From TrEMBL:
Highest taxon listed in the record's lineage: Bacteria
Bilayer topology term: Multi-pass membrane protein
Domain spans labelled STAS: 421-515
Region annotation Disordered: where it falls in the sequence: 1-29
Keywords linked to the UniProt accession: Membrane, Transmembrane, Transmembrane helix
Protein name: SulP family inorganic anion transporter
Species of the source: Occultella gossypii
Location within or outside the cell: Membrane
Length: 515
C-alpha cells in the first residue's frame, strides 16, 4: 500500500480541543489502557510489525528518488516514527520518509550534497514548528479540493517519472522481473492482506535472483545500508547567509508539502475512527520530528497515508504504541538484516514505486463523465496544478499556483452575482432609489461606480444596501467615489439598509481612504 494513495479531501484544518469524541477522551486510544489489556497490546505490537515491514521497501525506494543512500531514508523512517509517537497530535498515525519530501529535497542532494540536505531538513522542521505555533493548520481549509486532486495526480506522475532511469540501459531480465513484481502486488491481496503485497514481491524477486544467480542491479549498488544505530551529527555546512539562501527555498517547500500531507492524513484517520485530533499539535509535532531526523542524518519526511491505513484500518491499532514500535522494528530489521536488504533487486523496488504511482493517481478525476460534469474553471485549476508541479518538480509551486488560479476564478464568478437596480422616483420632488444586491469586494465593486446616472438623476439619491454586504476597503472607496460624483453635481446621497457589519466597516473607513 502506498503512502501517497488518493483520498477524499474534507476540511483538514478543523482543530477542535480535546473533548467528547477526541482521542484524548477515548479509552481505546489510551496507551495505559492498551498496556493493561494483553489482547489490545498484541494488536498494537502486530500492527507495528506489519507497518515496519511495509516501511522498508518504500523507505529505500524514496531514498533512491532523493538520490541518497538507502540508510538515510531508513534512518528517517525510524526517527520520524519514534518521535511522532510522542509529539504528534494524531495517535496511531505513521510518519516516515515519503515520496513527496524526496521529490522536494532531491535537487539539494544533486546540486550541493548530503550535508546541505541535512541542514535543509533541520530548517524545514524549524519552519514547521513555527507554522504550527502560528496556527497554519487553520489555513488549510482555503486549499480547494481540485488543487488537492491536482496535487495528488502530479505526485503520482513525478513518482513514475523518477523510476524511468532505472529501466534504461539495463539487462533484459529486469523487465520480466518488473512484470512479475507488479503482478504480485496486484494479485496477492486477493489471497490475504495480512502481509503487505509490496514486501511479498520484494521477497519473491530477491529469492529468485539470489537462488538463480541472476545479475541485475541491486539495492546494494545504490549505496551502503546501515550497520549500526544512527548517531547525532551536525551538518558540515558554513553558517552563512549564502547557505541560508541555498537551503531556505527547499526547506520552505518541504515544510509546506509535509504539513499538507500530514494534516490530510490526520483528517483521514479522524474520519476512519470517528474522532477528532489536534491538528495544531500535529503540525508542530511534524516539525519536531524533522528536526530530530535531521540531527540523526535522516532525509526528513511526513505522515504516510498508506502505512497509516495499514496501521489503523487493516490492523486495528489505535494508540501511539503501534507508531513507536513500527519505528523500532524497522531499525531492528535493517540493522540486523542489512546484508539481505542489499541483495534486493532494483526491479522489485521499481515495481513497488510504479504501483505506488498508479495507486496515487486519482483516475476518477480524469474520467470523461467526471470532466463533463465539472465546471471548466475547476478542471483548469486541476490541470494548472498538475502542469506546474510536473514542470518544476516542486509540489509546493503547483499547489501555490493552483490556489491562486482558484482564487481568481472564484472572485470572478462571485463578482457576477452583484447587481444594481434603478427604481422609479418615489415623490413629486424627485428621489431616485437604487437597490444594490450581492457580495461587495474588490472584484465586484470596482464597476459599481459606472452603474449610476449622475447627470440624469434627481436632486436626492438613495442607495439601498439591504441585500448587499460590504467586505473590504475597496467597496467603501467605491461608495465614497459615487457620493463625491453626485455631490459635484449638487445632489444629495443617502446610503441606507447596511447590516451591522457593513455599517461598522463603512463608518470606520468612509472618508479616510484618500481620493
Amino acid at each position: 500500500m502506498s503512502n501517497d494513495a488518493p483520498l477524499r479531501v474534507p476540511d483538514p484544518a478543523a482543530d477542535p480541543q480535546p473533548a467528547t469524541g477526541s482521542p484524548e477522551a477515548d479509552e481505546s486510544f489510551s496507551v495505559r489502557a492498551a498496556l493493561r489489556s494483553p489482547r489490545r497490546l498484541r494488536t498494537e505490537v502486530l500492527a507495528g510489525l506489519v507497518v515496519a515491514l511495509a516501511l522498508i521497501p518504500e523507505a529505500i525506494a524514496f531514498s533512491i528518488i532523493a538520490g541518497v543512500d538507502p540508510r538515510i531514508g531508513l534512518f528517517a523512517a525510524f526517527t520520524m516514527a519514534v518521535t511522532i509517537a510522542f509529539v504528534g497530535g494524531r495517535p496511531a498515525m505513521i510518519s516516515a520518509a515519503t515520496g513527496a519530501i524526496a521529490l522536494v529535497i532531491a535537487p539539494v542532494v544533486r546540486d550541493h550534497g548530503v550535508d546541505y540536505l541535512i541542514a535543509t531538513v533541520i530548517l524545514g522542521g524549524i519552519i514547521q514548528v513555527l507554522l504550527g505555533v502560528l496556527g497554519v493548520a487553520k489555513l488549510m481549509r482555503f486549499i480547494p479540493r481540485m488543487v488537492m486532486v491536482g496535487f495528488v495526480n502530479a505526485l503520482a506522475i513525478l513518482i513514475f517519472l523518477s523510476q524511468v532511469p532505472h529501466l534504461l540501459g539495463v539487462t533484459w531480465v529486469v523487465y520480466p522481473l518488473l512484470a512479475v513484481g507488479i503482478a504480485i502486488i496486484v494479485l496477492f491481496p486477493r489471497l490475504t492482506k495480512v502481509v503487505p503485497a509490496p514486501l511479498v514481491a520484494i521477497v519473491v524477486l530477491t529469492l529468485f535472483t539470489v537462488l538463480a544467480s541472476v545479475a541485475v542491479p541491486t539495492v546494494g549498488d545504490e549505496g551502503e545500508l546501515p550497520e549500526s544505530l544512527p548517531s547525532l551529527l551536525l551538518p558540515d555546512v558554513p553558517l552563512s547567509l549564502e547557505t541560508l539562501q541555498i537551503i531556505a527555498p527547499y526547506a520552505l517547500a518541504m515544510a509546506l508539502v509535509g504539513l499538507l500531507e500530514s494534516l490530510l492524513t490526520a483528517k483521514l484517520v479522524d474520519d476512519v475512527t470517528d474522532t477528532h485530533s489536534n491538528k495544531t499539535r500535529e503540525a508542530w509535532g511534524q516539525g519536531v520530528a524533522n528536526i530530530v531526523t535531521g540531527f540523526f542524518g535522516g532525509m526528513g519526511g511526513c505522515a504516510m497515508i498508506g502505512q497509516t491505513m495499514i496501521n489503523v484500518k487493516v490492523s486495528g491499532a489505535r494508540t501511539r504504541i503501534s507508531t513507536f514500535l513500527a519505528g523500532l522494528f524497522l531499525l531492528t530489521l535493517v540493522v540486523g538484516l542489512g546484508d539481505v536488504v542489499a541483495v534486493m533487486p532494483m526491479a522489485a523496488l521499481v515495481a513497488v514505486m510504479i504501483m505506488v504511482s498508479v495507486g496515487t493517481f486519482d483516475w476518477h478525476s480524469i474520467r470523461p463523465s467526471t470532466l463533463r460534469r465539472l465546471p471548466k474553471s475547476e478542471v483548469a485549476v486541476m490541470v494548472a496544478t498538475v502542469v506546474v508541479t510536473v514542470a518544476t518538480s516542486n509540489l509546493a509551486y503547483g499547489v501555490l499556483v493552483g490556489v491562486l488560479i482558484a482564487m481568481v476564478l472564484f472572485a470572478r464568478r462571485v463578482a457576477h452575482f452583484t447587481s444594481v437596480t434603478r427604481l422609479d422616483a418615489s415623490d413629486a420632488d424627485g428621489e431616485r432609489v437604487y437597490a444594490v444586491e450581492g457580495e461587495l469586494f474588490f472584484a465586484s465593486s470596482n464597476d459599481l461606480v459606472y452603474q449610476f446616472d449622475y447627470a440624469g438623476d434627481p436632486g436626492r439619491v438613495v442607495i439601498d444596501m439591504t441585500n448587499a454586504h460590504i467586505w473590504d476597503a475597496s467597496t467603501v472607496a467605491t461608495l465614497d467615489a459615487i457620493t463625491t460624483k453626485y455631490q459635484a453635481k449638487g445632489k444629495q446621497v443617502r446610503i441606507v439598509g447596511l447590516n451591522p457589519d457593513s455599517a461598522a466597516r463603512h463608518d470606520r473607513l468612509s472618508g479616510n481612504l484618500g481620493s
